[in-house]
UniProtKB/TrEMBL annotation:
Its main location: membrane. The lineage of its organism: Bacteria, Pseudomonadati, Bacteroidota, Cytophagia, Cytophagales. Signal peptide: none annotated. Belongs to the TRAFAC class translation factor GTPase superfamily. Classic translation factor GTPase family. LepA subfamily. It holds the Pfam family EFG_C. Its EC number is 3.6.5.n1. Keywords: Cell membrane, Elongation factor, GTP-binding, Hydrolase, Membrane, Nucleotide-binding, Protein biosynthesis. This is Elongation factor 4. The gene is lepA. It is found in: Cell membrane. Residues 2-183 form the Tr-type G domain.
Length: 595
């Protein structure tokens, strides 16, 4: 136990976490040159393409220092706010963290939010200034920022480069010398923290754990404390580049467990593993059932494919425990699913996986957060879709999720950034100058306002010099109304949105304008209206196509054949027929893509 070190790497996106992890694996010969692929830890195709780590992984290295052999467990953390609960569990499995800061960028929002998590868990922080090879690096200024942030000495900061390999030896020495060995009682009852799980269609769910007390042997009967389920430890082992089966994994170490679990949702990150006989007295603190934050409808483009979509969703859920869904019927779109996601990235991932892995073409309706409606009679109604919104006459109040947003930007852009946040119903809580040129802003704002394109806007107004991260702080009462959109005098439920009362007129007008742009002209005139209850607050009209054009394109049987041909030619387009109006995916997002 005294020669084990468990650590994670915390960094803002693109500051070089994956590259540096690769260097550590090379230096410790955990991977041979032949096996070395760039950014080994990012294994899913999607992750590689997007250059981000979606799921966390762990890998064990052996390292000899001053004649002593050490086991170093690197527990990787996902780098996106959608997965912040997993980050917190990975951090809870470690005694130390490498804090990587890009020498040309300095501290960014995600550096800080992850650092706070690490400090909360009493991790030893090793500051690393990465990318010192860059000609435009600013090592002195960035070092001062780091010293201010974590109140360390200048000498504590390790200059490094994931590109040249500079400093990698120093980082490994620091891991051994500065991070404490794990504590815990080797003879006590088993208490192991599940910090991750990975679905494997052949072997069942692989559970990754860190042992706090006791030990686990192959064949043991184990129990997951929070779910109450019992399993046999069919296979346990160490997480090297490949899994290496072992007879026993002991206190302080990290390992994997396989026991034929078939569904990802049976295993909850943050749960505690113990023995059936001689269980531990308490579960490890900090367990939470992760809840979806963003909800959207997913519908097949072709209504015939509903059952196929259901089968695909079921398969996706087998390996993604955080995806939740239930069947939903829309007057406009027919049969589909109301799905809950951890955030917008998660939603995009699911949509992409449906298309790539299952060859489905789907329409996604505008995402919405969850609202809590309190009725006059005291009843609480959960609103996951605008159509769930109760009759306003019976409503006492409605609450929406709020976040604490952390934004770091250049002094030049403070004005516009504050302006944007206020426009998004934010309240400024704090403003701190990190240096004369870089400012940290803290805002409280509704989650619904940042879910969609807030970050894009922030980047535009700050010319790229802004970073953003957030955490949820709870539900608060807001003046919200349901905004309905009528196409050809029919209310289209899939276009409804829940908006703040003061923004309703403006939003309604802009949504109508946007829909007029994105819906193609047809043989007839199409009125588009926005309404609150029965009151129409905005109207636009899509003019009819001129006659001669219609004559060429349409006409009974031919048009149907033509459509079929086009469909075969182009593959399926994300388009749906609403009444007699054809509407593209873009239109379903119109509610969100207006300012
Ligand atoms: P992550 O998002 O923190 O995992 O960052 P990556 O490891 O994916 O690195 C982001 C980008 O920075 C990639 O294009 C890397 O090639 C580059 N990079 C990483 N480390 C260094 C470094 O030390 N020097 C230079 N010049 N580039 C680096
Ligand atoms: Mg990465």
């Amino acid at each position: 136990m005294k020669n084990i070190r468990n650590f994670c790497i915390i960094a803002h996106i693109d500051h070089g976490k994956s590259t540096l992890a690769d260097r550590l694996l090379e230096f410790t010969k955990t991977v041979s040159d032949r096996e070395m692929q760039q950014q080994l830890l990012d294994s899913m195709d999607l992750e590689r393409e997007r250059g981000i780590t979606i799921k966390s992984h762990a890998i064990q290295m052996n390292y000899t220092h001053n004649g002593e052999e050490y086991v170093l467990n690197l527990i990787d953390t996902p780098g996106h706010v959608d997965f912040s609960y997993e980050v917190s569990r990975s951090i809870a499995a470690c005694e130390g963290a490498l804090l990587i800061v890009d020498a040309s960028q300095g501290i960014e929002a995600q550096t800080i939010s992850n650092l706070y998590l690490a400090i909360e868990h009493d991790l030893e922080i090793i500051p690393v200034m990465n990318k010192i090879d860059l000609p435009h690096a600013n090592p002195e200024v960035v070092a001062d920022e780091i010293v201010d942030l974590i109140s360390c000495d200048h000498e504590d900061i390790i200059p490094a480069s994931g590109k040249t390999g500079a400093g990698v030896d120093k980082i490994l020495e620091a891991i051994v010398n500065r991070i404490p060995a794990p504590k815990g009682d080797p003879d006590g009852p088993l208490q192991a923290l599940i910090f991750d799980s990975v679905y494997n269609s052949f072997r069942g769910v692989e559970v990754y754990f860190r042992i706090m007390n006791g030990s686990i042997k192959k064949g043991d009967r184990v129990k997951f404390v929070n779910t109450g389920k019992e399993y046999g430890a069919d296979e346990i082992g160490a997480l090297k580049l490949k899994q290496e089966p072992r007879k026993e994994v002991k206190t302080g170490d990290v390992g994997y467990l396989i026991s034929g679990i078939k569904e990802a949702k049976e295993v909850k990150v943050g749960d505690t593993i113990t023995h059936k006989e001689r269980p531990c007295e308490t579960a490890i603190a900090g367990f939470e059932d992760v809840k979806p934050m963003v909800f959207a409808g997913i519908y097949p483009v072709d209504t015939q494919e509903f059952e196929e979509l259901r089968a695909s969703m079921e398969k996706l859920q087998l390996n993604d425990a955080s995806l939740v869904w239930e069947p939903e019927t829309s007057a406009a779109l027919g049969f589909g699913f109301r799905c809950g996601f951890l955030g917008m990235l998660h939603l995009e991932i699911i949509q992409e996986r449906l298309e790539r892995e299952f060859n489905m073409t789907v329409i996604t309706t505008a995402p919405s957060v969850q609202y809590h409606a309190y009725m006059n009679d005291g009843e609480k109604v959960i609103v996951n879709a605008p159509s769930d919104m109760p009759d306003p006459g019976k409503l006492d109040r409605i609450e929406e999720p709020f976040i604490k947003a952390n934004i770091i930007t250049k002094a030049d852009y403070v004005g516009p950034v504050i302006g944007l946040c206020i426009e998004k119903r934010g309240t400024m809580m704090n403003q701190t100058y990190l240096t004369t040129d870089r400012v940290e802003l803290v805002f409280e704002m509704p989650l619904s306002e940042v879910v969609f394109d807030f970050f894009d806007k922030l980047k535009t107004i700050s010319k790229g010099y802004a970073s953003f991260d957030y955490e949820l702080i709870g539900f608060r009462s807001s003046k919200l109304v349901k905004l309905d959109i009528l196409l050809n005098a029919d209310s289209v439920d899939a276009f409804s949105a829940i908006v703040h009362r003061d923004h309703a007129y403006d939003r309604g007008k802009k949504i109508c304008e946007k829909l007029r742009e994105v819906i193609d002209r047809q043989q007839f005139e199409i009125p588009i209206q926005a309404a609150i209850g029965t009151k129409v607050i905005a109207r636009e009209t899509i003019k009819a196509l001129r006659k001669n054009v219609i004559a060429k394109c349409y006409g009974g049987d031919i048009s149907r054949k033509r459509k079929l041909l086009e469909k075969q030619k182009k593959g399926k387009k994300r388009m749906r027929q609403l009444g007699n109006v054809e509407v593209t995916q873009e239109a379903f997002m119109a509610v969100l893509s207006v300012d």
